[in-house]
């Protein structure tokens, strides 16, 4: 009883203490509420500074939204360290300018950190720096309009993803980053080992090699949480995960990263590709519509010329079989002798469909992974790739092989016997897909290079910070 009273007392003290800071507001809230006449405190960075005869006008951003708040500062409050790029705290009264613009009439100004541009600060006011230039300064690029807008959209998309799956009653699963399986079987994995030689020496056992010494088996950074989701799906129903994945590909293209975020979902009792396609299409349209509702200003900052809703939001996605896709490419003179469909061909198929996303379904089984369900013809598998503008493939998915004997013949390693065993005890048909978050952001924001869609991109020969 006494402990219960103590906790309630602490709770009351917490809220009382918190109320001390009620005047401080993020700029997004100040602009949205616009309580003219209210004394307000804001903190942020000076994005522009205009010195006039009696007044100084400063545009302040705190990163909370695309808009800036204009601060009107009496000249006697201006100090030498109040410059472009400096961080400040301003207290004053909200008002409207003669043109109706919300502004803050400063009564007190404090500079937290000065910014001496001539000592190497890479960005200039009123200058549209290219993404390639900005990319050289990963530690500072969130100060730019372009990157800050992209990161706010990334934050919003992540929230919309979780909201969508929550309304659909999926369970969010934290799948492991360390794993003993290479889900895709392509060998594009990063091996995990202790970096401490003393630890390896102390743990070394007879008949064990260095690769196995810590966990007892070779261990990798995950390339996919799919197999773990399949296990969870067979006891919890529909599940999803959103987390980092890793690929050891020697690629420096505008579409590849060594570390990226993958949204993966597994649908219980999914018996046909049409159900899987409908789920993917519904999710993508939800994300695009919601993000336009919440982050229109950010989308405009990123691309003023192409800031219109994509034409396909009110159209049904196109579906074609792999064979049909190959026939279209052949007629366009883009057919080659290689198996599969390359990036140039993917984008050509999307253009052929008036830039509406395209599901290419039922692929030859030799081109796809062991876990995909064979079609009735025993030649193809019930697999899909979703192709979109800018990126080409944006989603890959399939029905999962639920026939124990067929899967046993295709299992690449005895280490996956647990995966085979899922088909023995109360098995169900499932299907699932993986969606690359960064590629989704490329399509949503019309961003050519994937390295601009996340704070700290990693690719071969580049792991700064």
TrEMBL record:
This is asparagine--tRNA ligase. One of its GO terms (cellular component) is mitochondrion. It is an enzyme of class 6 (ligase). InterPro entries: Aa-tRNA-synt_II, aa-tRNA-synth_II, aa-tRNA-synth_II/BPL/LPL, Asn-tRNA-ligase, Asp/Asn-tRNA-synth_IIb, NA-bd_OB-fold, NA-bd_OB_tRNA. One of its GO terms (molecular function) is asparagine-tRNA ligase activity. GO terms for biological process: asparaginyl-tRNA aminoacylation. The keyword Protein biosynthesis applies. It holds the Pfam family tRNA_anti-codon. Residues 151-455 form the Aminoacyl-transfer RNA synthetases class-II family profile domain. Belongs to the class-II aminoacyl-tRNA synthetase family. Keywords: Aminoacyl-tRNA synthetase, ATP-binding, Ligase, Nucleotide-binding, Protein biosynthesis. Its EC number is 6.1.1.22.
């Amino acid at each position: 009883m006494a402990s219960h009273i103590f906790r309630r007392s602490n709770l009351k003290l917490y809220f009382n203490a918190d109320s001390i800071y009620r005047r401080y507001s993020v700029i997004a809230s100040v602009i949205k509420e616009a309580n003219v006449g209210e004394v307000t405190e804001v903190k942020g960075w000076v994005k522009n500074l205009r010195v006039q005869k009696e007044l100084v006008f400063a545009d302040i951003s705190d990163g909370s939204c695309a808009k800036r708040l204009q601060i009107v500062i009496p000249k006697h409050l201006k100090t030498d360290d109040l410059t472009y790029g400096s961080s400040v705290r301003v207290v004053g009264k909200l008002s409207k300018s003669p043109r109706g613009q919300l502004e803050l009439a400063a009564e007190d100004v404090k500079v937290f950190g000065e910014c001496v541009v001539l000592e190497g600060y890479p960005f200039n006011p009123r200058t549209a720096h290219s993404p390639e230039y900005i990319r050289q300064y990963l530690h500072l690029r969130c100060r730019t309009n372009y990157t800050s807008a992209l990161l706010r959209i990334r934050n919003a998309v992540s929230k919309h993803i979780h909201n969508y799956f929550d309304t659909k009653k999926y369970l969010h699963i934290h799948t492991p980053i360390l794993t003993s399986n290479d889900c895709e079987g392509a060998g594009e994995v990063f091996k995990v080992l202790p970096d401490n030689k003393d630890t390896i020496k102390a743990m070394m056992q007879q008949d064990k090699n260095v690769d196995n010494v810590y966990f007892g088996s070779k261990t990798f950074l995950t390339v996919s949480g799919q197999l773990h989701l399949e296990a969870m799906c067979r006891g919890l129903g529909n599940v999803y995960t959103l987390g980092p994945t890793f690929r050891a590909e020697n690629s420096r293209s505008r579409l590849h990263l060594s570390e990226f975020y993958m949204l993966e979902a597994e649908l219980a009792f999914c018996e046909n590709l049409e159900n899987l396609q409908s789920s993917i299409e519904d999710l993508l349209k939800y994300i695009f519509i919601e993000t336009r509702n919440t982050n229109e200003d950010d989308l405009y900052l990123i691309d003023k010329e192409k800031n219109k809703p994509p034409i396909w939001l009110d159209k049904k996605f196109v579906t074609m079989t792999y064979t049909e896709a190959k026939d279209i490419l052949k007629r366009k003179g883009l057919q080659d002798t290689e198996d599969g469909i390359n990036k140039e061909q993917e984008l050509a198929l999307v253009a052929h469909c008036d830039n509406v996303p395209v599901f290419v379904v039922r692929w030859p089984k030799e081109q796809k992974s062991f876990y995909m369900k064979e079609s009735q013809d025993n030649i193809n598998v019930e697999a899909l790739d979703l192709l979109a503008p800018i990126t080409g493939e944006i989603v890959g998915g399939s029905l999962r092989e639920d026939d124990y004997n067929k899967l046993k013949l295709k299992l690449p390693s005895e280490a996956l016997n647990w995966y085979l065993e899922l088909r023995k005890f109360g098995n169900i048909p499932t299907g699932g897909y993986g969606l690359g978050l960064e590629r989704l952001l490329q399509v949503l924001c019309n961003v050519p290079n994937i390295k601009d869609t996340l704070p700290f991109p990693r690719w071969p020969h580049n792991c700064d910070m």
